[in-house]
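User: Can you help me understand a structure? I only have the sequence.
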Amino acid sequence: VQLVESGGGLVQPGGFLRLSCAASGSTLDGYAISWFRQAPGKEREGVSCIFSHDGSIYYADSVEGRFTISRDNPKNAVYLQMNSLKPEDTAVYSCAADPRGLEFVVSAYTYWGQGTQVTVSS
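Assistant: Let's start by predicting it. Here is the structure, written out as tokens:
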């Protein structure tokens, strides 16, 4: 599975972005998909994940109510809608996929995209 993220950029505080994670090589249907982010000097952290087997969705406390994850199986893509962005959301955002995966566990994901930079600044 090859994953390619897009949609990052520079946005002012309070603004919004929608990140896309497009897959090739295999259908994402049946995979757990997670978005992770890594800010300079910090460890990678889980942002949101969506599981295929039951449709369950999880969000980190820091983004709950502001971010929304969704998947479009016909387009073989997963999205992360990010609203009310804050400077502390600045990071490289990566999507990851795995047939099983675990909520916010980096080592549980086999396939990774290259990441897309999100910068929130005035």
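Now, to help you interpret it: The two ends are 37 Å apart (CA to CA). The chain is about 0% helix and 50% strand. Let me know which part you'd like to focus on.
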